[in-house]
Amino acid sequence: MNSNRLLRLTAAVCALCLLPLTNAHAWAGEALPQVKRTTGERSIAAADPAHSGGVAQEAADPFEKRRELYEWMGAATHIPWYRLAAIDQYERTITKARPKSRGQLGQWIGIYMTDTEWAGTLNPNNVDELPATIRWFNGLGKDGDGDGLAKRTSDADLLYAVASHMMQFGPSDEDFAIALWQFYHNTRAVQRVGQFAKIYETYGKLDLEGHAFPVPIGSHYSYRGTWGTKRSWGGYRIHEGTDIFADHGLPVRSTTYGIVETKGWNPYGGWRIGVRDLNNIYHYYAHLSGYDKSVQVGTVVKPGQTLGWVGSSGYGKPGTSGKFPPHLHYGVYRDRGLIEWSFDPYPLLHRWEKEEARRLRKKK
Question: pLDDT 10s per residue in the chain (364 long)?
């Protein structure tokens, strides 16, 4: 018998010795508790709704299926659905930003864990699906649907693996932040998940994909693609956005559902405001002449909501204005988990402009 095989056998025997003799299926003691609750005329049972013929399979779109999974898990763990949704969405955005190193594991759930994280760092079987041995090696994998296996590709198991960690902490926002820190060890991740949770809680739904053009359609404005062109003020750099030239005082609107992350003076951008959306994209609005009084850091906003007004502030100390014609500088940045990188907003702006113009024509 080779050493690896002996190590696997020893680990399995040791782990099984920990199980109560009165319950042969006790390794599923980590499985989700049996739950049944009623939603309208339907019931959600303990089995994974994404694979059991439950409500989620009947749902018409991915948002409904994911919502059913969050609510089902929340009913069993007492973790609000919007917190589970926020974690799942953050994971989904990081996978999108790092497609070469991460992939979609579940059918609907976007949570990602490496095989080593799932099975346990010292587990000789990195594709282990036995909850007992995974627990023995301090792996994160859990059996969420009660089938006796902890599958890294199961929506229920992935979601329960995260939920079981969160259950070790209290229900307050501060407790949630501590739980996120212990899970990610990344302050940026803690902030993002907290922001996403607040957006979901505010609107009470997942489908928040609508957009608006940053200035009113039909007003006088002009723009073209200038992302990546040279800039010299303050040292050599490139232009990380698109300039929309418009009349001074024209409303500047949120292009997305999101949360205000930054607000105030920037030597380059003047009076600026930044909004984080659920795709983990930071929307940057610069050179404003002022802000709407209802908008503060932490305010949840929606497409078309006024954030401020077009101006010509910037390129100097606070209050500097008039060094260039009035315009809105609009930039977008994608979060990769540790850093953010700028990308060209022009294609998005062009699409949102066309879509909003089409909606307005339909209303007439």
Answer: 444 444 444 444 343 333 332 232 333 334 555 444 333 323 333 455 655 444 444 445 899 999 999 999 999 999 999 999 999 999 999 999 999 999 999 999 999 999 999 999 999 999 999 999 999 999 999 999 999 999 999 999 999 999 999 999 999 999 999 999 999 999 999 999 999 999 999 999 999 999 999 999 999 999 988 876 766 555 556 678 899 999 999 999 999 999 999 999 999 899 999 999 999 999 999 999 999 999 999 999 999 999 999 999 999 999 999 999 999 999 999 998 888 889 999 999 999 999 999 999 888 7
**C-alpha closest to that of 152 among 197, 102, 97:** 102
H-run or E-run covering 270: strand 270-277
167 forms beta bridges with: none
Q: Can you give the pTM of this predicted structure?
A: 0.83
Query: Can you read off the two tokens belonging to residue 292?
Result: 């709407």
Q: Which residues pair with 309 in a beta bridge?
A: 251, 290
Distance (Å, whole) CA 84 – CA 45: 18
Tokens of 276: 């984080």
Instruction: Report the chain's terminal Cα–Cα distance, integer Å.
Output: 79
Distance CA 80, CA 167 (A): 11
Report yes or no: 161 and 144 within 8 Å, Cβ to Cβ.
Answer: yes
Helix (DSSP H) and strand (DSSP E) numbers for the chain: 10, 14
Non-local (6+) Cβ contacts of 129 within 8 A are 141, 149, 150, 151, 152
What is the spatial distance between Cα 340 and Cα 277, in angstroms, rounded to a whole number? 14
Q: What long-range pairs does 187-195 form, CB within 8 A, spacing at least 24? A: 188/335, 188/337, 188/338, 189/90, 189/337, 192/90, 192/93, 192/276, 192/280, 192/335, 193/83, 193/86, 193/87, 193/90, 194/86, 195/86, 195/259, 195/261, 195/276
Q: What are the angstrom distances between the C-alpha of 27 and each of 19, 21, 104, 364?
A: 7, 11, 27, 63
